[in-house]
Design goal:
The structure is a single chain. By secondary structure, the chain is an alpha/beta fold. It has one domain (about 25-185): Vaccinia Virus protein VP39 (Rossmann fold), CATH 3.40.50.150. It has helices spanning about 5-15, 15-20, 30-35, 55-60, 80-85, 125-135, 155-165; strands spanning about 45-50, 70-75, 90-95, 110-115, 140-150, 165-175, 180-185. Helix 5 links the parallel strand 2 (about 70-75) and strand 3 (about 90-95). The protein binds S-adenosylmethionine.
Length: about 190
């Protein structure tokens, strides 16, 4: 986590603590955990709630090209910063719950969705809209990676069942404030 990230993040948190959902950006251990299964071969990646770009930098480190990145961020404070830091990426100022209303891609070419959203504080209809929208763009065996500071997956079983999805924990780190876990959410029947 760079010092240049702490102040803008904290300022955004003061303005909207519920939406920003954490007082500080994720550290390198959480970023590494979140991106561990992503490579240059993953192709297009959508990142939800990039904030100051902690996971975005890690994605580039894994070999994802800036042109393959779509960053969806609702906090207006973060937009100019993301545009400056990742000039080759597509930066969208929008609510992640609107994914299904927009036509961001032709078909479903996306290999991975990386989400730093605070799903635990969102109403279930919103979580359903976000997951449903994201899976509309994901390839059959594409995956949605979600970070959480809670003890279990932040997507309720009823939502996973409704969308035909499964959640698998893929790691945990105590070298983050607060300690974080990552879940891979994928289709139960990718080729059905
Ligand atoms: C906990 S912060 C994580 C930021 C960054 N990924 C990190 O780990 O340092 C959550 C981020 O999600 C953004 N966010 C919250 N609700 C959103 C929504 N509905 N659509 C898009 N972004 C949202 C916030 O503005 C914030 O940048």
């Amino acid at each position: 986590m760079s010092a240049a990230d702490i102040l803008p993040f904290f300022r955004a948190w003061i303005r909207n603590p519920l939406r920003v959902a954490a007082v500080a950006p994720s550290g390198p251990a959480a970023a590494s955990l979140m991106t561990q299964e992503i490579t240059a071969e993953t192709g297009p990646v959508i990142e939800l709630g990039p904030g100051t770009g902690a996971f975005t930098r890690a994605l580039l480190g894994r070999g994802v090209r800036q042109q393959d990145l779509t960053l969806v961020e609702y906090g207006s404070d973060f937009i100019p910063l993301l545009q400056r830091r990742f000039p080759g990426a597509r930066v969208l100022w929008m609510d992640a719950a609107w994914l299904h209303r927009e036509k961001l891609f032709k078909g479903a070419p996306v290999g991975a969705v990386v989400s730093g959203l605070g799903l635990l504080t969102m109403p279930p209809e919103k979580v359903l809209a976000i997951l449903g929208g994201a899976f509309g763009y994901l390839r059959p065996n594409g995956a949605f990676y979600q970070i959480t500071y809670g003890a279990r997956c932040p997507v309720a079983d009823v939502i996973l069942d409704r969308l035909g999805l499964q959640a698998t924990p893929i790691g945990q780190t105590f070298r983050n404030l607060p300690p974080a876990s990552v879940y891979r959410i994928s289709r139960r029947h990718p080729h059905a």
